[in-house]
Amino acid sequence: MEQPNQSYINSLSGGDDAFKQKLIDIIKKEYPEEKQVYFDNFKANNFKLAADNVHKLKHKISILGLEKGYEVAVAYENNLLNGTTDLKDQFETILKSITDYLEDI
Question: Which of 23, 49, 53, 74 would bridge 38 by S-S if both were Cys, CB 3.0 to 4.6 A apart?
Answer without folding.
Answer: 53
